Amino acid sequence: MTRNEFLQKLADELRKNNITDIEEIISEYEQHFAFKMADGFSEEEIAAKLGNPAEISSQYESAGEDQGGEGRKAAATIGLFCIDIFAGAFFVLLMAWEVIMAAFSVCNAVVAICLIGGKSPWSLIPPMPRFPAVVLGFSLAALFVLSAIGGVYFAAFIRQLMRSYGRFHQNTMAAATGRAVLPSLGIYPRLPAKINRRLRTVALVSAVLFTTCFVLGMIISMIMSGNLEFWHAWGWFGYK
Amino acid sequence: MNIQYKKGVLELCVLSLLKKHDCYGYEISEFLSKHIDIADGTVYPILRKLRSEGLLTTYMQEESGGPPRKYYSLTSLGRESYEKERAEYLDFAKRVEILLEGDNHDTK
Hints:
The structure holds 2 protein chains of 2 kinds. By secondary structure, chain A is an all-alpha fold. Chain A has helices spanning 3-16, 22-38, 43-50, 53-59, 69-117, 130-177, 193-225, 230-233. Chain A folds into 2 domains: 3-59, no CATH class; 70-238, no CATH class. Helix content of chain A is 75%, strand content 0%. In chain B, strands 1-3-2 form a 3-stranded antiparallel sheet. In chain B, β2 and β3 form a beta hairpin. In chain B, α1 (3-20) packs across α3 (43-52). Chain B starts with a helix and ends with a helix. The mean pLDDT of chain B is 85. Chain A binds chain B through residues 25, 27-29, 31-32, 35, 46, 49-51, 53, 55-56, 59-61, 63, 178-183, and chain B through 7, 24-26, 29, 33, 39-42, 44-49, 52-55, 67, 69-70, 77, 80.
């Protein structure tokens, strides 16, 4: 078989098998012939060494859109749409929880400032002596730090979860249309090790501070009011 | 040897060669047929398949005195997938070798 015969036969076979980009494939074989001929091989030798054009052609996979490709794509789109609605609702729920955590954190900060500063706007802070108020204020300040860290970590978690879901969405479409599938992403956020370590230390310190100050504040209140249920002694919650 | 059997291993060989440096198609074909007994035409379908899977990319480069050549280069996905499949293959080959060697001793 000569060069032209080989290339012609290969192009015919590729066309028969529904392969796209035939020119590009043929140009590879043209180059192969060019290199081999420069090395002094005859056209027949090169063609024989390349193999049977029909066999070569059968090794090219048709791009996948010839049979059932459209159907698979449509099924994947509908399926993904349904999952998207479910996942979307889930993400809304997670974000609502994030808002609640942020509000809780802000409330802790405000109450802590009021207790430590001795202010009681609109008489909302129950009356109590200055000393236990400051101790309890510190415990709430620590709780603010703790809940703020929780909020930040949770936000990072939601973000990573959404990215991971986005990658899954992308890969499912890619698999249905025969495109390249990317490695999937983990669902847990990967903060830099240094930040991770610091966050953990601060969270631990504030957890200990919160517990200690809270218990201490209770005990001091009980001693100062001379009553285990000091809230009755100080007339909180409308009791006298 | 069975061609389907060889094809998966050939993919691994192509990735291994491209991990060292970028090559044009003919270079890869020559390299493989030097080491493994295959028809020269087998390499090009493999290159195309690897490219459509996103493991390889191509670029054209001008050569002095000749038409531009199409170079193949490993993508980061290709690198990742090569390392994984290499380890899997080596482990598999080792196990098969143990099995077949054991058979040899039994018959003696």
